Amino acid sequence: MYENSKLILESENAPDPGGFTWRSPSNIALVKYWGKYGDQLPQNPSLSFTLAASFTDTRLEFEFKEDTSTEIDLTFLFHQEPNEAFENKIKKYLERLLPVFPFLSQLSLTVQSGNSFPHSAGIASSASSMSALALCLCSLEDHLFGTLSDPAEFDKKASFLARLGSGSACRSIFPYASVWGTTGNVPGSSNEFGVGAEDYLHETFKDFHDDILIVSKSEKSVSSRAGHALMEGNPYASARYEQARKHLSHLIEALRSGDLPAFGKIVEDEALVLHALMMSSNPSYLLMLPDSLEIIQKVREYRAETGHQVYFTLDAGPNVHLLYPGAIVQEVRAFIESDLKEHCEDQYYIQDWVGEGPEEL
Ligand code: PMV
């Protein structure tokens, strides 16, 4: 999409060294993206809440490189320590961006990154980390070429670049909520980048919590990348993509009107369908654990007994997200403490909420 911009620095105008820092949050999908094609394009549109407490801080520093090699020159530090695996991943990502950003091979780059949540918490950090890096790259482009002074253009390009790193990361750029994937329900939506969905939210959803119950801190046994790929042979794939479109349309209605039971029904169906797709892949696999199921049962019982509007969703892993309005935070926290915490590894859970999106630090 941006391949023709060909941003190249003239060596007589070598820029002074500098840097940019962005804080970018994770997001939780309500309608899930599961299945892709081409260059990280989604098989169905998805919608997420942008989180607040789970974020990545990333600083990108640059210096003009004297040599004319076309290689990416990168030093990467994670929580101040060298991390070869992450460095290689980011190097590959930056190499992939060269058609869009040829100037990256003219610079020496240092990237320093750190998460607000413990590294081994079983929380995928790709959405927050890739979006933070994409935002830094857009700040760099704007600094060097003055091409992204329009905030809407800036966000669009950041979302596009984040998507190439990790699909779901493209939704972390926007405050409160985002839609990624072309759909007639959202004007301006695209498979190439996410768009903000704040305007579709009733006030109830702007004061909304997502407490993340960490059932297991271990890395998952099947990566999202492998999971997406297995959708290609899944016998239910086309019915699933159709269902996601319907869910998205109905969810937008529920978000607009503030209809919590309608919201909760779709969100819980989406979570269970995601895992049903894993169970019906070939080979099949399970990422939920017995404690995930215990939590789900207890949440449904609690809702039936108390009438409190608390719903669950799941990512591609065993951890359970509890979604509920700010008005019942005391009650739900008491319920977590008395009934749910015991199902978490080391009784650990993260208190998160729907937030205002990334900020430049
Ligand atoms: O962005 P990826 O490739 O890690 O895939 C994310 C998939 C889910 O988290 C399960 C759903 C989603 O839409 O975020």
Which H/E pattern describes the elements? EEEEEEHEHHEEEHHHHEEHEE
- Structure class: alpha+beta
Radius of gyration: 21 Å
Kindly state the percentage of residues in helix.
25-40%
Please describe the biggest sheet, giving its number of strands, its sense, and whether it closes into a barrel. Answer: 8 strands, mixed
Query: What percent strand?
Result: 15-25%
Give the low-pLDDT segments: none
Distance between the termini: 29 Å
Nearest-integer average pLDDT: 95
The shape, in one word, is globular
Number of helices: 8
Hetero ligands: (3R)-3-hydroxy-3-methyl-5-(phosphonooxy)pentanoic acid
The total of beta strands comes to: 14
Q: How would you portray this structure in words?
A:
By secondary structure, this protein is of the alpha+beta class. 35% of the residues lie in helices and 23% in strands. Strand 5 (73-78) and strand 6 form a beta hairpin. The two termini are 29 Å apart. Helix 2 (126-145) packs across helix 3 and helix 5 runs antiparallel to helix 6 (260-279). Strands 1, 4, 5, 6, 7, 8, 9 and 14 form an eight-stranded mixed beta sheet that branches. A four-stranded antiparallel beta sheet has the order 11-12-10-13. It has helices at 84-96, 126-145, 151-165, 224-230, 237-257, 260-279, 290-306, 329-340, and strands at residues 18-31, 36-37, 41-42, 46-64, 73-78, 81-82, 107-115, 177-180, 194-196, 208-213, 311-314, 320-325, 349-353, 359-360. It contains eight helices and 14 strands. It is globular, with a radius of gyration of 21 Å. The structure holds (3R)-3-hydroxy-3-methyl-5-(phosphonooxy)pentanoic acid. (3R)-3-hydroxy-3-methyl-5-(phosphonooxy)pentanoic acid binds at residues 29, 32-34, 46, 126, 166-168, 224, 228, 274, 315-316.
